[in-house]
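Researcher: I'm preparing a figure for a lab meeting and need a structural model of a single chain. I don't have an experimental structure, so a prediction will have to do for now. The sequence is pasted below. Please return the structure as C-alpha cells so I can convert it later.
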Amino acid sequence: MPKDTGRNDRRSRIAYLAARLMAEDGIEDYALAKRKAARQAGMPDRRELPTNEEVEEALRTYQQIYHREEHRNRLRVLRETAVRAMRELARFNPHLTGSVLNGNAGKYADINLQLFTDNEKAVELYLIDRRIPYQAAQSRLCSGEEMRTVPVYTLSDHGTGIELTVLSMLDLRGPLRTSPEGKNIERAKLQAVEQLLGED
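Model: Understood. Here is the structure written out cell by cell.
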C-alpha cells in the first residue's frame, strides 16, 4: 500500500471516530475530540491528525446516517432558541457562530453568540439588571495578528447553554479566529439566522 494512502486512511479513521465522539458524547472541542479519537485508534502521531474541516465533514456525514431526523429537530430547536436570545440582546448587535450556525450541533451543544458593543461592561450590567443568572469567564481570540482576552458570559435557557462572547464594535470590521493559524470564525446576524429557520 502506498505510504500516502495509508496515512489518508488513518486520518479518515480518526476523523470518523472524532465525529462520533462529538455526535454521541457532546464534545464541542475539535482538538480534544481528535486527541481522544487518535488514542482510541492507537495512533498517537499528531502529524496524522485530520483537520477540523475533515472532522466537520465526517460529523455531517455521521449525523445524516445515524441521527438525521433527530438532528434536524434538535438543530431547529437550538436555532429557535438562538433567535429568541438574539432578539432579546438586539442592542448588542448579536451574531450566531459555532455548530448551531454551521449545522453540526451535537446532543449537548451550546449556542454561541458574539456581541458587539463599545462598552463591554454594558452586557454584564444588562444581565444583572434583568436578574438573569450567568457565569463569567474569559476566552482568547485572534484579531489580525493579535491574541486578545475577551469576556464570556454563559446563561441557560431551559437547560440549553448560551455563551455570550463580548467584543468591540471595531471587531465587526475584520475576521476573528480562535488561533493565529485557525480559519476565520463564521458568523451570522439575526436576519440570516431567521432565514435559516425558514429554510429548515
